[in-house]
Specification:
Blueprint: E1 5-8, E2 19-23, H1 31-34, E3 45-49, E4 53-54, E5 60-61, H2 76-96, E6 104-109, H3 111-122, E7 129-133, H4 149-152, E8 156-162, H5 170-182, E9 186-192, H6 200-211
Parallel strand pairs: 2-3, 2-6, 6-7, 7-8, 8-9
Antiparallel strand pairs: 1-3, 4-5
Length: about 210
């Protein structure tokens, strides 16, 4: 299945062109994080996917969530199916543009960020810079992750969370620091005076992370 997406192509594309994949949150769509594109490097290929399922209200989701059921908060089979779809579509785009010597970066917000952790830690050989915003590492999606330090050392994580996040508590987000520390991953964990979103300082730090 091909995921729908929006794309910003650089003027020139070659085998070394950097690819950035964007994964939106629950109830949003592919245009959301794509709004970052104007301040990202002009020579990057930027692809923002639309999640495959319609959410309860407007927008789309990667999997169903049930906040009233702490034991089964997320629909794990749906989430795993979305992970397979994202991976499949990343590889298709990589082949389509002939990206054989490039770096591929990932950025996800909320539900998209939860999947970003899973993608990066299951397939560290495919990615370079990883941004996970207003989310947390979901244990049910992190079984059998790669623990080989040699494979993980090339990853660079930027983690951000709002201290007043009412959707995903900051305590959940902080679990990422313990996880990544235990895996000996290189990461930066930032907290901001904001709710479930990306404020201006967070945005500027994110752009700085990607442009270094």
């Amino acid at each position: 299945m091909d995921l729908q997406y929006v794309v910003r192509e650089p003027q020139n594309i070659n085998s070394k062109t950097t690819l950035l994949i964007l994964l939106h949150g629950y109830g949003s769509n592919e245009e959301d994080l794509f709004s970052f594109a104007p301040t990202l490097p002009e020579d990057w290929l930027i692809v923002s996917f639309r999640a495959p399922m319609k959410s309860a209200y407007e927008g789309y989701s990667w999997y169903d969530i049930d906040l009233m059921n702490p034991e089964n908060r997320i629909d794990v089979p749906q989430a795993k199916k979305s992970l397979e779809l994202i991976l499949e579509n990343i590889l298709k785009i990589t082949n389509q543009y002939g990206l054989t010597e490039n770096q591929t970066h990932l950025a996800g917000f909320s539900q998209g960020g939860i999947l970003t952790y899973a993608l990066a830690l299951h397939h560290p050989e495919l990615f370079s810079k990883i941004a996970c915003m207003s989310c947390y590492p979901e244990e049910k999606l992190l079984t059998n992750i790669v623990k080989d330090k040699k494979k993980l050392e090339r990853l660079r994580f930027f983690i951000s969370h709002g201290t007043d996040d009412a959707i995903i508590p900051i305590e959940w987000g902080r679990k990422a620091a313990d996880l990544l520390y235990d895996l000996s991953c290189f990461f930066s964990f930032r907290e901001y005076m904001s709710g479930h979103g990306v404020n201006q300082k967070n945005y500027m730090d994110l752009m700085d992370f990607f442009q270094k």
